[in-house]
Amino acid sequence: MSIKLVVFDMAGTTVKDENYVGAAFVNAMQLYGYQARLEDVSPIMGYQKPVAIRMILEKLERDSDAITPALIDRIHTSFVEEMLTFYRESTDIVPLDGVEGTFGLLRERGVFIGLDTGFSRDIAQLIVDRLDWNDKIDILVASDEVEAGRPYPYMIEKMMRQLGITDASEVAKVGDTEVDINEGHRAQCKYIIGVTTGAFTRDELATYGPTHIVDHIEDVLTIIR
Known about the structure:
The chain contains 10 helices and 6 strands, in the order βαααααβαβαβαβαβα.
């Protein structure tokens, strides 16, 4: 059965990310007195950001009662504000090599292009607008538009419903982190493709059992052919 939809992650998979996201996350934590380290933050950036904030707070805050929804919301608001400013003003917002060509060749084959992300919709849409991708992709779903973000399969399932796809064996998932791969497994995608352009090395990705690991996004074309 042929692939009808390929779901790509954003930062680190299709969009250049030189730890911009992790740095903004660390800055937001520091505003509230939490000294998070970039090396601890980067591997969890694929999660829905309020979930990632809770994960870090549970490591840094000895008083569990202090980890309140209000605190998480304040930290997340600071993170979103910094990310919106960065993605609105920075000249470093560029696609990773080969991404736009891969999108184009997939669409020539009649394959839908989906983007999903741990970002909220406002950040994700700003990135798409800055890159002029509204006509290059078919669907975008952000983590705050579903019941729960990755590793849950809800973003992929929402795309499938909206595009009229009923069989997950017609879907491929591509991403650079643990949660991308686990999302693909939970959604029962036919292909779950890890890419080494982001937060995880080849060996780290292999731990989570993707069907394939690639170093270049164009290799996705060969896999799903």
